[in-house]
Amino acid sequence: MTTPQGLRLMAVHAHPDDESSKGAATSARYASEGVDVRVVSCTGGERGDILNDKLKDDADILRDISGVRRREMARAAEVLGVSHTWLGFADSGLPEGDPLPPLPEGCFALEPLTVTTEALVRVIREFRPHVLTTYDENGGYPHPDHIQTHVVTMAAFRAAGDPAAYPHAGEPWQPLKVYYNGWSPERMERLDEAMVEAGHEPPYADWRANLRRRPRRVLTTRIRCAEHFPQRDDALRAHATQVDPDGHWFAVPLEVQQRVWPTEEFELARSLVPVDLPEDDLFAGIRELADPDEVCRRAPERDADGELVLAYEGQPPLPVDEDAPDVAARSTEPQDADGDGQDDMRSEEGHAG
Ligand SMILES: [Zn+2]
């Protein structure tokens, strides 16, 4: 059994603050156990709006938003107990309007895939993670940087262990599993119910309605991490320009969350080691290896097309119940039921970057 001290986890995110809203308590838990956790931010979040009303007109922040976001990110990493790397690409922004305007020149989503993939391969070969996390193919919600983060992470997962790929980007290293961050509609439902029982309005009614219009994912992995929820919240608050301290992230008291839903969910997308699902550990199947590093250094088996031979490949989203009233609207396209010209998940996502 490999001790936590020998294990490494890399969480790849689009913008600074995503690492604190998706899988943050899981990162904090593994870090506290001695796993080496690295957060990678693909972009600097330079095109994010200031979403905290109390800071909207702050002249110092407006003068240097990217500097402010770098300091916020450093603080969040410190709170979570993780190390952090900037991949160095420019935020694509969230295009809005009908028709959508073109993406800004030179942004992350428009960079050639070989350039972005090589940058991530270099970081993977340097940090040598056994497990990667990223977003599903829809990006969780349709932000161009989130979708690109998925594409680049999956390309880097395929290439990092290939000695012929990006030979100037370090010694080959093959991560053994890649996960998508999950978002459980049941969790929102249970939390809403608990709040109603306590005599409050359900804080997530709109969010749940928006989730019902998105493809449903098959969540394979639940990580118990309730004791790290306070760190998650502190890390979120560290992104002060992006997170309203009175907003929905903090609408349910911590003790209610810890009692009602003490886990974070993930979707296993690819594994080179045999797995037994559902699981409760991102390193399941890896801890059991005599020498995980040796396996990651070895060139992985590939088929005739050069694709990795997988022990497990993720399932497509669940088939849609054709009788459900919201089927027509179920979509990976931007959704705008309230007609405000913005995707309805935008405010729930908690950032515009
Ligand atoms: Zn983001």
UniProtKB/TrEMBL annotation:
What is the catalytic activity of this protein? Answer: mycothiol S-conjugate + H2O = an N-acetyl-L-cysteine-S-conjugate + 1D-myo-inositol 2-amino-2-deoxy-alpha-D-glucopyranoside
Q: Does the keyword Metal-binding belong to this entry?
A: yes
Q: What is its EC number?
A: 3.5.1.115
Q: Where is the composition biased (Basic and acidic residues)?
A: 343-353
As for what it does, the entry says:
A mycothiol (MSH, N-acetylcysteinyl-glucosaminyl-inositol) S-conjugate amidase, it recycles conjugated MSH to the N-acetyl cysteine conjugate (AcCys S-conjugate, a mercapturic acid) and the MSH precursor. Involved in MSH-dependent detoxification of a number of alkylating agents and antibiotics.
Q: How does it assemble?
A: Monomer.
The protein in question is named Mycothiol S-conjugate amidase
Q: Which gene encodes it?
A: mca
